[in-house]
Amino acid sequence: MEKKIKVLRIINRFNLGGPTYNATFLSAFLSDRFETKLIGGKHEEYEGGSLFIPHKYGVEPEIIESLQREIDFKKDKQAYQEIRKIIQDFKPDIVHTHASKSGAIGRLAASKENVPVIIHTFHGHVFHSYFGKLKTLFYKKVERHLAKKSSVVITISDIQKDELENIHKIIPNNKAKVINLGFDLTKFQTNQQKKRLDFIKAYNIKENEICIGIIGRLTDIKNHQMFFDVIEDVINQTSKQIRAFIIGGGELEEDLKKRATQIERNYGESVFTFTSWIKDVDIPLARLDVVCLTSHNEGTPVSLIEAQAANVVVMSTNVGGVKDVVNVNNTGFVLDDFSVKKYAQKLLELIENEEKRKKMSQNGWDYVKNKFHYTRLCSEVEKLYLELLNINKDES
């Protein structure tokens, strides 16, 4: 029997988002040549948990309680020791880390244990808009050191690769490899009418309401304040009935609810609906007319990929890999600056012109269905693994 290639996959934490899906599909759907062990930390209290995702695909991760998002030297040291012990017991041929904290601790542990191949995937980065200058410089120094310990560093878009190689100078040019994320997108095309009716019923949506959604963690980097400013500008310029859905949770929820109340008091009608986290996001997407993103920084925004898969037109600020996932002016609009007026103007264009909105929305599925499918992701990653191990793909 052919000896299995062992992969230890390490993720920061199991919260809702692209990294959990990416790690799950790569754990579940590589060929039989591979044996994968998935480990990671728990989600934080204000985040949506995502263990249902690996469980759905038959993956049972091991939770490392000490692996947490925030820096805590005592817990970080404990996580490092636990991961070293797992490496000693599992004896992986490859350690593949996903996102920053697991990328740091996991790569250091793998290097110490002389793992043959060490890979890291950047799902986003913190080199602008997150921290002050000194803290950002510290993180850049750390990541440059970790890049030297990596066999390859995967970026999830061409734009991100350019940022990390040429702008922030994190990765040496010979170590970066672009592999787009992959998802199970078929659910966004199935039972859409039932999902649509379920969402309408759950939130008492009127037939003539234009439903605009923003999906993600309620935190500073996602810049929800801009979204609220845009909606306020829009409702003062249109006679259409606007309903804005804030899908997600986070530390800014109470502040944003106060902002929503203030706008509604001025407007005289209910506009905003906070849904908290919705596990099956294909349900709201079956009814939403537009999905917005106003972030200061992104890796590959999953919400925009999923919206297009559900044939929903999208709008976004031009950050991170956004232009790599949106077919600009065909499946959505991308704004090059953070002007509320310009964003509102483009959103109004979609609100007032139903024919244009529907025509653009219909392009979404064709654009994302193959480009961002998990089978393509697994094929590209498997090929990379074999190359790094100097194994021919057809070798038996």
Tell me about this structure.
This protein folds into two domains: 5-182 and 373-388, Rossmann fold; 186-368, Rossmann fold. It contains 16 helices and 13 strands. By secondary structure, the chain is of the alpha/beta class.
* Helix content estimate: 40-55%
The side-by-side strand order for the widest beta sheet comes to: 3-2-1-4-5-6-7
CATH architecture of the largest domain: 3-Layer(aba) Sandwich
Structural class: alpha/beta
Elements, N to C (H/E): EHEHEHEHEHEHEHEHEHEHEHEHEHHHH
Structural domains: how many: 2
CATH superfamily of the largest domain: Glycogen Phosphorylase B
Short description:
The protein is α/β, with parallel strands linked by helices. The chain has 16 helices and 13 strands.
Summary keywords:
396 residues, alpha/beta, Rossmann fold, six-stranded parallel beta sheet
Write the layout of secondary structure elements.
Blueprint: E1 5-13, H1 18-28, E2 34-41, H2 52-56, E3 62-63, H3 73-90, E4 94-98, H4 100-112, E5 117-122, H5 133-148, E6 152-155, H6 158-167, E7 176-178, H7 192-203, E8 209-215, H8 224-235, E9 241-247, H9 253-267, E10 272-276, H10 282-285, E11 290-293, H11 302-309, E12 313-317, H12 322-325, E13 332-335, H13 340-352, H14 354-361, H15 364-368, H16 374-388
Parallel strand pairs: 1-2, 1-4, 2-3, 4-5, 5-6, 6-7, 8-9, 8-11, 9-10, 11-12, 12-13
Helix pairs in contact: 3-4, 8-9, 8-13
